[in-house]
Design goal:
Blueprint lengths: L1 H20 L3 E5 L7 E4 L6 E3 L9 E6 L8 E4 L4 E2 L5 H4 L20 H17 L4 E11 L5 H11 L4 E7 L3 E7 L2 E5 L3 E12 L8 H20 L5 E2 L3 E5 L2 E11 L4 H11 L7 E2 L1 H11 L10 E6 L2 E6 L3 E4 L3 E10 L5 H19 L2
Antiparallel strand pairs: 1-2, 1-8, 2-6, 3-5, 4-5, 4-16, 7-15, 7-19, 8-9, 9-18, 10-11, 10-17, 11-14, 12-14, 13-14, 16-17, 18-19
Helix pairs in contact: 3-8, 4-8
């Protein structure tokens, strides 16, 4: 118990030091693990990446946007250490060369009426074009209560043990906190795993899954399998099952490929996978174009991916159930997949339920 208390105390001090001294840092907890990991570096040592690529640097932490063509990804070229091994005195010697202001957070929230029009726009589009699915997101912006970044992280970790919980601070770029249920890519040096996670309803529902949710999830599964097989991989597809993620549950199909892949080959696979129809849509280019035209906010790093890289082991997660934060506001990002069968009220309620994953810890 004392070790846990010391780890939390050190991690809280490290986060506050990063915020005070304005240097990049990250915190994460792997699903099913009790340990928190920490890493930090100077702004000058950050690797800035373009496209869906992995760096040659053997170890570090990757933070990438939804739209890799318009925003940069960042790689922290440092080994993540367990929270109890954080050296606060060493962190105090890391400082920004110049003062970097917090990125301003705009209030881009929309009303139900506006959202309804967007859903109806998509349904009409599916009848007029080859668009089969698009993921529509919206924001929920709140005045920040008296709760620290680390308190939010700890609450999320305690409430959602099967989620990848994270905190990322990039001065001038943004500060993000999240608890995502979705693995994008998990490679252990011999087997590369991913998942088709889509279709949503409230957790604990007793009835059978609806046709709309089954179709939505199958679109994601088919896309991933076909994309990997087109690249020459033999895929292994597991059984579809229900996966609980906070206040909601999803349909999930595990998919894997085997092989001895170098970083360049894993980057190729990453480029094929991101963004999957679970966060973008299908066909990919058509869905992303629709998102750019219709959504009133910039996604930035929502729907992107993040996670640790350690030698041959690469664990990347989709940045969902996340919020962008500064000292005065919290901006939650929530979304849902739309198809020709979508009904505005149902889709709105789905995003409301997803928002509760974050609201439930903010309002504790």
């Amino acid at each position: 118990m004392c070790e846990t208390i010391d780890a939390v105390r050190l991690l809280s001090q490290a986060v506050e030091t990063s915020l005070l001294n304005r240097f990049p840092a990250f915190v994460f907890r792997i699903p099913g693990d009790d340990a928190f990991y920490w890493g930090a570096c100077t702004r000058e040592s950050l690797d800035v990446l373009s496209g869906s690529e992995l760096p040659e640097t053997p170890e570090g932490f990757l933070f990438a946007p939804f739209d890799v063509k318009t925003l940069s990804a960042f790689f922290f070229p440092v080994k993540a250490v367990r929270a109890e091994s954080v050296e606060i005195d060493a962190l105090k010697r890391i400082g920004a060369v110049s003062v970097i202001e917090d990125k301003p957070i705009g209030r881009d929230d929309i009303s139900y009426g506006q959202y309804k029009n967007q859903v109806e726009n998509l349904v009409e589009e599916t009848f007029c074009s080859s668009l089969k699915k698009a993921v529509l997101s919206r924001t929920v912006t709140l005045d920040r209560p008296a709760v620290s970044d680390m308190q939010l992280v700890l609450r999320l970790a305690a409430k959602y043990p099967s989620a990848f919980v994270s905190w990322v601070h990039l001065p001038g770029v943004g500060r993000w906190i999240g608890a995502t249920p979705e693995t994008l890519l998990d490679y252990d040096g011999s087997v590369l795993s991913t998942m088709a996670l889509a279709g949503t309803r409230r957790a604990g529902s007793k009835e059978a899954w609806g046709e709309k949710e089954m179709e939505e999830q199958q679109i994601v599964t088919d896309y991933i399998v076909n994309a990997l097989e087109k690249e020459g991989f033999a895929t292994e597809v597991g059984e579809r099952a229900t996966r609980v993620a906070g206040q909601v549950e999803h349909l999930c199909t595990p998919i894997s490929i085997s092989g001895d892949f170098d970083r360049r080959r894993v980057s190729d696979i990453l480029n094929v996978l991101h963004p999957t129809p679970a966060v973008g849509g299908y066909p990919k280019a058509l869905a992303i174009d629709w998102i750019r035209r219709v959504e009133q906010h910039d996604r930035d790093y929502y729907g992107g991916y993040l996670g640790p890289v350690s030698g041959r082991e690469i664990r990347l997660f989709v940045n969902l159930r996340c919020m962008e934060v500064n000292d005065t506001l919290l901006k939650l990002y929530v979304g849902g997949g739309l198809t020709a069968q979508s009904r505005p009220e149902d889709e709105w309620n789905e995003t409301e339920a997803k928002a509760q994953t974050l609201l439930s810890v903010i309002n504790e």
